Amino acid sequence: MQIDPNKFPQTGGKIPNFLKVAPIIIVIFILFLIVAPPFVVIPSGYVGVKLTLGKADMEELPPGLNFIIPAVQRVIKMSVRTQSYDLRGANSINSLSRDGLTINTELTVLYKIMPTKAAEIYVEYGLDYETKIIKPVIRSAVRDVIATLDSSQVYQERELIQKKLMETVSKELEKRYILLDEILIRDIKLPKRVVEAIEQKRRAYEEMQKMKFIVEKEKLEAERKRVEAKGIADANKIIAGSLTKEYLQWKFIENIKAYAQGDNNTVILIPYDQQMTPIINIPNIKK
Fold this sequence. Notes:
- By secondary structure, the chain is α+β, with helices and mostly antiparallel strands.
- It has helices spanning about 15-35, 120-125, 130-145, 150-155, 160-175, 190-240, 245-260, and strands at about 40, 45-50, 55, 65, 75-80, 85, 95, 100-115, 180-190.
- It is about 45% helix and about 20% strand.
- The longest helix has about 50 residues, at about 190-240.
């Protein structure tokens, strides 16, 4: 940037010293803003913990543009969104059931830190709070819950285990400024022989229930047949009581009429006695 000396007649055409160094000062200032800006931008879903000469300010910085003193203050950005922490594979949890068997549990923890307690978390635990808080709390809770159950209960009562873990872990993490969203049990592994024994017991139980159903069904069918037979017997008694001599004579005459009107009218009528011997119908055989 060139400065015209003719613009300064009061100094005999000489450029003042402060204007000579002004460009240098401006350049230095711009470089300083680039290297050590006096502001920091905190994105949504985060809060800032401001450190002044290494000491944390207990009032968190909200999302947006925040001003700081360069070279004296700096900001640690901490997420307040829901995060997941896996305890699987080498990180899975081994514990003993009430009957002394080793149970391996794999799970995922969904959590978020309290936005107004980020500074306290940073001061007490630093940024590695998953390892220092969540991991030991979860391990302790899983072992305590599994220790109250037999291996067969552990295998069959996953929802119960998850509910107990939620109750215990939620209280413990809240004391440390962390909110628990969910605990997802990924897998519960028991010794193979135990799983086989439980499955065999389950199949035996299902077979027993099936046999009970069949027995009940047969009982109901026998009852139905008994009722049906009694009904038939009662009906026969009623019919037998209504078969008078006059009725049988009338029925005999009706049968004669039916045979006479039919295509086959070759019949033999056997005289009947008081017992009303039945009619014998001999078909018409064509030669």
